[in-house]
Design a protein that fits this description.
- The chain has nine helices and five strands; from the N terminus they run E-H-H-E-H-H-E-H-H-E-H-E-H-H.
- It is α/β, with parallel strands linked by helices.
- Helix 6 packs parallel to helix 7.
- The termini are close together.
- It has a five-stranded parallel β-sheet, sandwiched between helices.
Length: 209
């Protein structure tokens, strides 16, 4: 059986039940959609675990590396992180700058691969749209997001990991100006937004299984 771990912030967390794994522990977002698809079409071949934590930045995921990644011994894991590294700086002056984001992300991957040399890792590109939660400082948010997206791509390339582009896809989907249809507040996906992530992530999963 292939053990698959979802890792990230609130977009991945999606109100999962922290006391139970299985269906209850997947939340309502793209992890549930991915698990539903593969559980149906590849019956009995996958076990899915979600350890996303709402509010996490790259530094918090790195702090959880032992308990929530290495000790679980996943065969495949995906990571989606970056938006809080910016958002928390703009709102609370407690973010992570682009240079440190890349440095910590690199350390995270290095240590995971050292402990689990056979693991396959998928890096998802962070994304943002103009919405009720981001419009006040959108130009700065967008510019900083693109720095984190580029850093995530460099980390994926450095370790020859699968990379899932998402920003351009959300931009194209919301070209009519209705960004809230996809990201409710400019950050958190709606059901339709989670389906986009599910579809793009599934392409990466199919390429490595």
């Amino acid at each position: 059986m292939i053990k698959y771990l979802f890792q990230g912030d609130s977009i991945t967390d999606a109100d999962r039940d922290r006391d139970r794994d299985g269906n209850f522990g997947l939340g309502y977002g793209y992890p549930l959609l991915v698990a539903a698809d593969y559980s149906k079409n590849k019956k009995g071949k996958f076990e899915f675990i979600n350890r996303g934590v709402s509010g996490d930045k790259i530094v918090e995921i790195y702090a959880r590396i032992k308990e929530d990644i290495i000790n679980l011994k996943p065969d495949i894991m995906s990571i989606l992180v970056g938006v809080n590294d910016i958002w928390h700086e703009l709102n609370e002056q407690n973010g992570v700058d682009a240079e440190k984001y890349e440095k910590i992300y690199t350390m995270l991957i290095e240590e995971i691969l050292e402990a689990l040399p056979n693991i396959k890792i998928i890096v998802l590109e962070p994304f943002v749209l103009k919405g009720c939660g981001t419009e006040r400082y959108y130009e700065v948010f967008r510019a900083e997001l693109l720095k984190r997206a580029a850093a995530a791509k460099r980390v994926a390339d450095k370790f020859n990991l699968a990379f899932v582009p998402l920003q351009n896809i959300f931009d194209e989907a919301s070209a009519d100006g209705n960004t809230a249809y996809w990201l409710a507040d400019g950050v958190h996906p709606t059901a339709a937004g989670h389906q986009i992530i599910k579809e793009e992530l599934s392409k990466a999963i199919d390429s490595i299984i």
